[in-house]
Write a structure and sequence with these properties.
This protein is of the alpha/beta class. It contains 11 helices and 8 strands. The protein has a single domain, classed as Rossmann fold (3-Layer(aba) Sandwich).
Length: 280
């Protein structure tokens, strides 16, 4: 059962991403994960450039990611791919360019405005094998052992109970299937003022956990062959930090060992079931 705090945080994320779905891309890409904490350095502090990838759709790119998981996901023609927190559908459409007509791509999101935008984009592109489902990624509307590949881009850090998500990923993957997930993790402890700020939470930073804890959750849920495929530091501009920290606190943060990183992680579900809910 979810506790009250988890429900409140999910509702906060839902509200923020409804706002993002309804605003233009220019507004999104000039803020930290579209959360509205605008910087005079007009670029998204998390995202990578999708525009050169086959299947890229400008209408589906809201500038909200922190990596390019589809580039690393080893998707093959005919695969069934699930995208967690699919937003306006950009990662789904790139995945579909690889799976082709013989594959299937399922996006899951719990924000109605995002689902409406994604479905309109899929219809515009004429994709009959790309489906967008309403659902919570802690309890996915997908049967067990259905997916060849799971991808996600800067979403799990927004989920209060990440262990539930990794357990669900293990459940929906076929034996031998794998995931490639881009996310935000921490090394060291962020100042409380940042972690407690609602805008920064929905802006991808304050919901992040320690890198070791993140990898530990993957391991404890039965995954094997874990690889960090890409890692890059995230540098938040001072004018964003100044909304939460004093000049002295910003200086202290810059000089500390604390770091915020975007990582893309790959892991496999074993061919023989050895997850926490089957065999020892």
């Amino acid at each position: 059962m979810e506790n009250t705090t988890e429900k409140e945080l999910k509702e906060l994320v839902r509200q923020k991403y409804t706002e993002i779905a309804l605003q233009d891309k220019e507004t999104n890409t000039s803020s930290c994960c579209g959360s509205g904490c605008c910087s005079t350095e007009v670029y998204n502090i998390m995202s990578d450039d999708y525009t050169q990838l086959t299947g890229y759709s400008a209408d589906a790119d809201l500038g909200l990611g922190c990596g390019l998981p589809t580039e690393f996901a080893q998707i093959k023609a005919g695969d069934t791919v699930v995208d967690l927190g699919s937003g306006a559908g950009n990662d789904c459409f790139i995945a579909r360019s690889i799976t082709g007509e013989s594959g299937k791509v399922i996006g899951i999101d719990f924000t109605d405005a995002m689902l409406e935008k994604a479905r309109a984009n899929a219809e515009k592109l004429g994709f009959n094998n790309v489906e967008f489902r309403y659902g919570d990624i802690e309890k996915m509307p997908i049967t067990a052992n259905a997916a060849d590949v799971v991808v996600s881009n800067c979403v799990l850090n927004l989920v209060p109970n990440k262990n539930n998500v990794f357990r669900e990923i293990f459940r929906v993957l076929k034996p031998g299937g794998h995931f490639s997930i881009s996310d935000v993790v921490l090394v060291g402890t962020l100042p409380d003022k940042l972690r407690g700020a609602a805008e920064m939470y929905a802006g991808c930073v304050s919901g992040a956990v320690q890198r070791e804890e993140y990898i530990g959750l993957i391991t404890s849920n039965g995954f094997k062959d874990i690889v960090i495929q890409k890692e890059k530091p995230i540098v938040i501009p001072d004018d964003i930090l100044s909304s939460y920290l004093s000049a002295a606190e910003i200086s202290s943060l810059r000089n500390s060992a604390v770091g915020i990183y975007s990582i893309t992680v790959f892991a496999k579900k074993p061919q023989a079931c050895c997850g926490p809910d089957c065999c020892n």
